[in-house]
Amino acid sequence: GDSVTQMEGPVTLSEEAFLTINCTYTATGYPSLFWYVQYPGEGLQLLLKATKADDKGSNKGFEATYRKETTSFHLEKGSVQVSDSAVYFCALSNRGSSGSARQLTFGSGTQLTVLP
Amino acid sequence: GAVVSQHPSRVICKSGTSVKIECRSLDFQATTMFWYRQFPKQSLMLMATSNEGSKATYEQGVEKDKFLINHASLTLSTLTVTSAHPEDSSFYICSARDSPNTEAFFGQGTRLTVV
């Protein structure tokens, strides 16, 4: 079945450091890929997504590129802020034969702490 | 984005009792709701999918008599953990969407501790 392997945390960085959180996936067909973020005490929020190979999703300074050849969707940010401290989840969704979206398959999550 | 409210955020209960967790879509009609369980440092595992007005579809290995799901209206789904045991202690998260091809929005999760 489908699976997502995500870089284990926790990750601790200083403010303005460069961030990379690795994510690789195994899936049949052509999944859509997502990054979700969970701030303390809150639900998961969609951070960015990419629906086909070579697409780049971006939001709030975060970027991830859908790499089919390496089955990867690594999350990057050039300069992190204290407010970026959260748990980040990589996920995929495969479209069914009818074209409808299936449920999400999540990675284990990576805790990011940014120190001032 | 749309808002999904989950209640309670934390609950502690005694072994053998039942606990109900509510998931509400506040500003859209949720034709489909999903219930996930998350163990520490592990992925969110899908437990079941519920469509309004019909029985929930449970994932393999999830006991339907243990985890009762009701989706009686377009804005509310409930998960009842029956005869809870310490091994049921976990983080439970719901999500909801209004159609198959739209984004699903997540509740804030419920931390269940069974003592």
Question: Briefly, what is this?
Answer:
The complex is a heterodimer of chains A (116) and B (115). By secondary structure, chain A is mainly beta.
Task: Explain how this protein is built.
Chain A has 116 residues and is mainly beta. Chain A contains no helices and 12 strands. Chain A has strands at 3-6, 11-14, 19-21, 23-26, 32-38, 44-50, 56-59, 62-65, 75-77, 86-95, 101-106, 110-115. In chain A, strands 2, 5, 6, 10, 11 and 12 form a 6-stranded mixed beta sheet that branches. In chain A, strands 3-9-8-7 form a 4-stranded antiparallel beta sheet, with no helix packed on it. In chain A, β7 (56-59) and β8 form a beta hairpin. Chain B has 115 residues and is mainly beta. In chain B, 0% of the residues lie in helices and 52% in strands. Chain B has no helices and 11 strands. In chain B, strands 2, 4, 5, 6, 9, 10 and 11 form a 7-stranded mixed beta sheet that branches. In chain B, strands 1-3-8-7 form a 4-stranded antiparallel beta sheet, with no helix packed on it. Chain B is globular. The mean pLDDT of chain B is 91. Chain A binds chain B through residues 4, 8, 36, 41-46, 89, 99-101, 103-109, and chain B through 1, 4, 6, 9, 34, 36, 41-44, 46, 49, 93, 95, 100-109.
Number of helices of chain A: 0
Q: How many H/I helices of chain B?
A: 0
N-to-C SSE series of chain B?
A: EEEEEEEEEEE
Oligomer: heterodimer
Termini of chain B, distance in Å?
37 Å
- Please write the string of helix (H) and strand (E) elements of chain A: EEEEEEEEEEEE
Biggest sheet features of chain A: 6 strands, mixed
- Mean pLDDT metric of chain B: 91
Structure classification of chain A: mainly beta
Provide the β-strand percentage band of chain A. over 45%
Shape of chain B: globular
* Uncertain stretches of chain B: none
Number of strands of chain A: 12
* Number of strand elements of chain B: 11
